[in-house]
Amino acid sequence: MKILTLIGCLFFIQLHAQKSVNLIISIDQDIPPGIQRPKIRVQHSDSSAKVFPVDYYPGRLIVPDTILTLIDTSNIKEMKLLFDFTEFSHNSRKDYHYEIQISPKLFDNYFNIIKIYNTSKRKYRKLKPVAGTQYTYIFQDPSGWRTPL
């Protein structure tokens, strides 16, 4: 009986296996305490797509192992980190939606930093936004800084 219980626990743990990735997200030079509805969308070369919910805490992105398995076993055309962010200032509320292109290397890097700038704000208007959006971002990992593709 103890063996069956142990096997059941190991199976449950395997189903819910996760990997933690070192990731800091900065929005308009501030590190938000949280983001809403984070997920990773994986676009395959055959045009099919899968979306995986993930968890984010400042400094840590927690992804299910199924994403890592998918990366190893399939031909990926594009990966994006999608999330929402709500900003409150004075008596107003502003909701933002971001789609940040990421690389499968993200999961192997020692650290990752994404700096997002809302070009709709006066301070960042001179920056060139990502096509079809009102924001731009730069990405830093151990290999250096990169702008959106």
Structure notes:
With 149 residues, the chain is an alpha+beta fold. It has one domain (19-146). The protein has helices at 2-15, 65-73, and strands at residues 18-27, 36-44, 49-53, 55-57, 59-64, 76-89, 92-102, 112-118, 135-141, 144-146. Strand 9 and strand 10 (144-146) form a beta hairpin.
* pLDDT averaged over residues: 83
The number of strands is: 10
Low-confidence stretches: 6-15
What is the percent of helical residues? 10-25%
Helical element count? Answer: 2
Rg (CA only):
18 Å
By oligomeric state, this entry counts as single chain
The strands making up the biggest β-sheet line up spatially as 4-5-1-8-9-10
Which properties best describe this structure?
149 residues; alpha+beta; 6-stranded mixed sheet; 10 strands; 50% strand
Strands, helices and their partners?
Layout: H1 2-15, E1 18-27, E2 36-44, E3 49-53, E4 55-57, E5 59-64, H2 65-73, E6 76-89, E7 92-102, E8 112-118, E9 135-141, E10 144-146
Parallel strand pairs: 1-8
Antiparallel strand pairs: 1-5, 2-3, 2-6, 4-5, 6-7, 8-9, 9-10
